[in-house]
Design goal:
2 domains, 258 residues, single chain, 29% helix, Ubiquitin-like (UB roll), alpha/beta
């Protein structure tokens, strides 16, 4: 048997059992194994990792672990001066775009409410999610670590929270999206952009009560769903306020989601 010392930093500890969090682990292994395979065998998806130091030197996922190595593994969101080290992704995504897995429908709706480009369908297969992520350079949002361990996945994030409002605040915090918010500009049903439309162009497509009291209307450029600022608008504003509050609480407690 061979022995390696491993230290996982910050958010990567979310995937480790309680006794192994934020400590240097002594891990035994046999045979020839890459650091990527070793990290994932411990439950951590490779897309959550941005930097690996083996005995003080920057290495990639294909590094073969040696007996008595001392290895430190850092997450994508760790604040460090890393100009001179090897990043484990080709480049960050300049324009944040997401695809949510089948379990995150409410999160997708809330992100769309905030104007953040988020694909979601409740019948996407894992293969479809991965292929769309690759083709359109979208970050996968999921609660399935198995999906994130797929070799073809280059950008992905494991959503920690179970409450959809907190999930949305978590994504704002983790991806620093507070400046990207553009409220009520996307269709909650299909994610396409909304266009303002004259009341006369939709008057025969809206309820009679709405015709009498509403003056402002928007239509989805893809599915033609019509929106107006009714009582649902007030409820959505309340939800957005909760999301922003969670974001602010997370920002005040960096490294620890409330």
């Amino acid at each position: 048997m061979k022995t390696v010392n491993l230290r996982f930093y910050e958010e990567l500890n979310d995937f480790l059992p309680k006794g192994n969090k934020k400590v240097r682990l002594t891990h035994q292994f046999s045979g020839r194994t890459s650091i990527k395979d070793m990290i994932e065998s411990l439950g951590i998806p490779h897309v959550e990792v941005d930097m690996i130091l083996a005995n003080g030197k920057s290495v990639g996922f294909n590094y073969i672990v040696n007996d008595n190595d001392d290895i430190s593994i850092y997450p994508v969101f760790e604040s460090l001066d890393v100009k001179e080290v090897q990043h484990l992704r080709e480049k960050p995504l300049r324009n944040p775009k997401f695809i949510a897995d089948v379990h995150l429908g409410s999160l997708a709706k809330y992100l769309r409410m905030l104007g953040i480009d988020t694909y979601y369908m409740n019948n996407y297969t894992d293969e479809e999610i991965i292929q769309i992520s690759i083709n359109e350079k979208r970050t996968i949002l999921t609660k399935d670590t198995g999906l994130l361990k797929q070799k073809r996945v280059t950008h992905g994030y494991y959503v920690r929270n179970t409450n959809p409002v907190k999930q949305a605040g978590e994504i704002l915090y983790r991806f620093n999206l507070i400046q990207s918010i553009n409220y009520f500009t996307r269709c909650l049903k299909c994610n396409s952009l909304l266009q303002k439309v004259e009341k006369g162009n939709v008057i025969n497509k809206i309820p009679e009560k709405v015709r009498a009291i509403q003056k402002e209307f928007y239509v989805c450029e893809n599915c033609n769903k019509i929106y107006w600022p009714g009582t649902h608008f007030e409820r959505m504003n309340g939800t957005i306020a909760q999301i922003i509050l969670y974001y602010e609480l997370s920002s005040e407690n960096p490294g620890k989601l409330i």
